[in-house]
Task: inverse folding
């Protein structure tokens, strides 16, 4: 008798950002499982060759050393993932290996991978958290070698301290060794007006330099959010950062120590800046000493501070930019922490106290003047009280401050806004809309349905004494008479619900709700928007989706199959990424896929075409973005792009806007040769607010 597995249908919901409506979905009951697997993020770790090689080298070295001393080797692998470290330990000659994995889909996959590599009966796999394991119940004996990878960009953000403390107290012998063995954290104090734009609000000035809007005192005096800003730091333009200090060793974590690691510490360090400047922020990273002899080092430093930079540069391809010479990883990045109130250092007053703090999961930093009573000063983890920093993303805050972008909007406003203008602003936190008042508009209505965004905008209204502004929670609050009196409807556009660039087409959806009440002469800006695409060769970003196949000689194809199936069921075709952090070469000229005019937003569109690949290379992705046309003129100065900031030249690296995220469609296993064709299609259904893309590489 044949039995067919049947899955029940389950109801779910999702927010459609194009119309902000919550839509009902019917999925198989395994949908959540597949979504978890597809988004687990194990893939790029397994593509990290330096990490994998050094783990294997140190495991073999440690097991051999223990064997030479006449000791048995009993391994505990916490957070085994695919089981890769367990297989390394057995290959190196461990007597027993116990592995634990709390993420059940991954634990089930590890079970199959171990069996496929002929280790199935030799690893005891426990499908629970290590902190729930009991000796005598789950483990026969305590382990004397711990191999684990439970670190993140902040080192401690995944709960590593509690896990190590519990393991030493309950699961490991007194003489147990640990891989990795020790970690050192570094901080470098930096001045950067570019990076500071992600955390502050600047003056908004007109084309002549006159102040149109100033930040409110509650924003200026706010300490901001202490949360980590993880970033591919090597990609920051060097001419936009000014280090005031060398990297400073701030805290060491000894993972092999039987004494509990302190989960909360602070340290005040007297620092002398080698040049004057403003202590805007702290660059943070860590390195780990893998073995108990502390001979094998793995560093997460950016390229300019990497201890092995010269060595890895000599071994790297001459085609690689310097910024990509050091090993790439997206699971362990670098971090920026913003100083609540920066100090201004001068040549004669260049010493200060760097205050470093961590708790069980996170970090925060501060700076104090070099005064004796500050050396014992502690600071609590600060928090945003003005609501500006917690309402908007880092990229949005930077976008608000982006001078070149604002200049284009202000050019349009200065040419169009006059004393008789009645303006409706659609968007969230659109301070350019408030600038209409300063430019002389008669009345301005700002649609601000989000409570915190409305609070921020109201603080600017009060601070700048703007008397002709109305903050509207709902478009339904606008009477027909008001809508009919409008001379302009404007937007940047930006909405808090947007993730991909075209999610801001919500502007068009809002227009359709009021269009029948607008007079026919009303000016709408942006007038139109276009979605563009270009096939590219990523140096590294594609690894987060690429098949692993094998790692250090171990077959991980079952992991690939599991992820592939889950991605086909649950993954969207286009993801949002800040592409300035991920270098890619253009393989062709960009092509316009879709153009919408917002006065005619209710028209369905279906387009298809081909992009001819002009450059040889591995076409592992398609990048997409939106250009906003502020008016009908066609003047390049009236176009605001969320994509490249310079013309795209096939064969060369693309320079991307640093304050937006672009769309990426990943393509696996396609070696595009010169003359290959990328077939594309796009379908836009206005009424249901659906926008779908499809891409296929075809060879000659």
Result:
């Amino acid at each position: 008798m044949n039995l067919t597995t049947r899955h029940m249908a389950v109801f779910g919901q999702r927010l459609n950002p194009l119309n902000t409506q919550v839509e009902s979905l019917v999925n198989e009951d395994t949908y959540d499982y597949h979504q978890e697997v597809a988004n687990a993020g194990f893939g790029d770790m397994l593509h990290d060759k330096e990490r994998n090689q050094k783990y294997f080298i140190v495991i073999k070295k440690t097991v051999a050393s223990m064997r030479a001393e006449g000791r048995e080797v009993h391994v505990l692998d916490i957070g085994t993932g695919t089981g890769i470290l367990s297989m390394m330990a057995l290959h190196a000659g461990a007597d027993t290996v116990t592995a634990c994995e709390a993420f059940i889909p991954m634990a089930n996959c590890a079970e199959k991978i171990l069996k496929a590599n002929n280790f199935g009966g030799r690893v005891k796999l426990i499908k629970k958290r290590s902190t729930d394991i009991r000796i005598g119940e789950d483990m026969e004996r305590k382990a004397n070698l711990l191999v684990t990878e439970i670190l993140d960009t902040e080192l401690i953000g995944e709960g590593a301290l509690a896990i190590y403390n519990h393991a030493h107290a309950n699961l490991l012998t007194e003489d147990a060794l640990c891989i990795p063995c020790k970690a050192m954290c570094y901080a470098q104090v930096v001045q950067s007006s570019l990076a500071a734009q992600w955390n502050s609000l600047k003056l908004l000035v007109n084309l002549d330099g006159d102040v149109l809007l100033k930040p409110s005192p509650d924003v200026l005096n706010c300490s901001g959010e202490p949360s980590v800003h993880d970033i591919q730091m090597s990609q920051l333009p060097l001419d936009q950062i000014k280090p005031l200090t060398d990297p400073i060793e701030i805290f060491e974590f000894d993972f092999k120590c039987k004494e509990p690691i302190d989960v909360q510490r602070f340290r005040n360090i007297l620092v002398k800046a080698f040049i004057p400047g403003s202590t805007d922020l702290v660059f943070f990273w860590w390195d780990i000493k893998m073995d108990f002899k502390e001979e094998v080092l793995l560093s997460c430093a950016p390229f300019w501070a990497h201890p092995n930079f010269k060595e890895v540069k000599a071994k790297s391809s001459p085609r690689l930019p310097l910024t990509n010479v050091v090993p790439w990883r997206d699971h362990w990045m670098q971090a920026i922490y913003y100083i609540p109130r920066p100090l201004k250092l001068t040549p004669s007053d260049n010493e200060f106290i760097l205050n470093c703090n961590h708790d069980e999961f996170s970090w925060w930093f501060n700076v104090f003047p070099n005064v004796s009573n500050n050396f014992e000063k502690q600071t609590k983890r600060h928090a945003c009280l003005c609501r500006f920093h917690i309402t908007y993303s880092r990229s949005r805050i930077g976008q608000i401050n982006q001078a070149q972008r604002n200049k284009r909007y202000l050019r349009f406003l200065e040419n169009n806004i006059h004393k008789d203008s009645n303006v409706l602003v659609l968007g969230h936190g659109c301070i350019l809309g408030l600038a209409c008042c300063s430019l002389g508009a008669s009345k301005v209505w700002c649609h601000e349905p989000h409570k915190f965004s409305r609070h921020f905008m109201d603080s600017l209204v009060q601070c700048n004494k703007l008397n002709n502004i109305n903050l509207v929670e709902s478009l339904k609050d606008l009477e027909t008479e008001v809508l009919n009196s409008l001379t302009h409807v404007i937007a940047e556009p930006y909405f808090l619900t947007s993730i991909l660039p075209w999610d801001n087409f919500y502007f068009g959806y809002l227009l359709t709700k009021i269009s029948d009440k607008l007079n026919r002469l009303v000016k709408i800006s942006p007038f139109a928007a276009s979605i563009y695409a270009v096939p590219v060769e990523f140096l590294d970003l594609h690894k987060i989706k690429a098949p692993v196949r094998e790692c250090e000689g171990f077959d991980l194809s079952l992991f690939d199959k599991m992820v592939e199936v889950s991605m086909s069921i649950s993954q969207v075709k286009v993801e949002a990424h800040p592409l300035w952090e991920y270098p890619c070469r253009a393989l062709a000229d960009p092509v316009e896929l879709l153009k919408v005019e917002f006065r005619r937003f209710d028209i369905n569109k279906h387009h298809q075409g081909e992009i001819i690949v002009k450059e040889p290379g591995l076409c592992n992705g398609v990048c997409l973005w939106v250009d906003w046309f502020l008016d009908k003129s066609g003047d390049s100065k009236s176009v605001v792009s969320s994509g490249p900031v310079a013309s795209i030249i096939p064969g060369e690296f693309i320079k991307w806007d640093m304050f937006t995220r672009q769309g990426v469609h990943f393509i696996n296993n396609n070696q595009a040769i010169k003359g290959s064709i990328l077939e594309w299609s796009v379908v836009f259904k206005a009424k249901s607010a659906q926008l779908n893309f499809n891409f296929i590489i075809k060879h000659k």
Notes: The radius of gyration is 28 Å. The first strand starts at residue 9 and ends at 16.
